[in-house]
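DM from R.C. (forwarded with permission)

"hey, sorry to bug you on a friday — could you get me a structure for this? deadline for the figure draft is monday and I only need the backbone to look sensible"
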Amino acid sequence: MPKRGVMRLGGLAIAAIIAGWSTAAGAVTVEEFQTVVDAYLAERKAPEHISGVSAFVSLSRQGPDIQLFAGSTSLENGEPVSGDTLFQIGSNTKGFTGALILALEAEGKLNIDQTVGDWLPQYPEWKDVTIKRLLNMTSGLPTYSESLPLSRLWVTQPHRHYTPNELIDYAYPSATVNLPPNEGYFYSNTNYILAGMIAEKATGKSYKQLLEEKLFAPAKLRDTFYEPMAYPPAILARTASGYFNNPECGLYEPDCKQAVLAPLIGQDMRTNDLSWAGAAGAIISTPSDLARWIRAVFAGKVLPPEQLKEFLTLVSTKTGKPLEAVNEDDPRGFSLGLVRIFRPEVGALWFYLGETLGYRTAFLFSPEADIIVAASTNSQPSGDEDQLVPMMVKLYHLAKDARRDTPTR
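My reply, with the result:
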């Protein structure tokens, strides 16, 4: 979910697992990758309020793959982070929702040029908004996740369950709701809750069933889960604690002196009901499974060519207009569920940083270099304290160096 806005270690426990890595592969060693992760945890444990980090580096479709772990699953007597440790992946869920919609389009169940009115006539104020505009964030709809009534409930009723209809009610115009509309590109979680509802309406199946049948299975995901309510004990037992540590005021409280969510600072969000994020951000997974998902999408294992092309079509986050390619002048584009960024030090990459109230999970992917870096850690800090992605960029540079040093097979 977006940065707040909200969506807004004793000794180090360290492990690196390497699949297909040859000690003669080149000058870059696994220890250098691990050093980056260790340094991040050592330097950022206090300011970001984290206890552990999990990272995954894939040097090509054929490998080698490197799993990197540091720290523990909790600030209080946690187990060492491992490949079994789960994290909330936040708005990386949007990539799954967008792909799901396009998988249904490929089956003839819907068309992304259809409208909210075609599928959800109970929302007549939004009847002309197309599914495509929901997915590429040009609908102009306000975002329910910044609603002050909902934020207050996160504080007072952390285990409350929400239906998708209830979430939409926090954003839909009414006698008690008057959130400002927007133009151009505007990041709204409301879009993806509506998209999940449309998927269910088009098929008669639950969003959970659809994810598992149409996305998780073909991508061969082993450690990726979605529940419409609170996660069961077996999943929570594998999930790292996640700490809210963000004092920033929300989008719809611009003049506040203390954020509505301030009482949550320092609290562990692990067992809170995640239904508030739904199809916009409620999946739980691992960095290695997230990387597996991205590779499956780009390899055409999830969507046929026509829908994959649609999925990767960009609009500029500056203008909301179609964007052929990101560059220094227009460095960020949003597709139908993924982000494309341009940074001078790395060039153009596919990317997403997903957040919930206590977690961050991100990936960087270069199809040209055939390198993926994915990572998770267990807090949501303020934006100026967040250094997870810079750490991942360091891993990406090491991966490129390793590729140059590795003999061609």
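R.C.: lifesaver. The longest helix spans residues 30-48.
me: no worries. The chain has one domain: 14-405.
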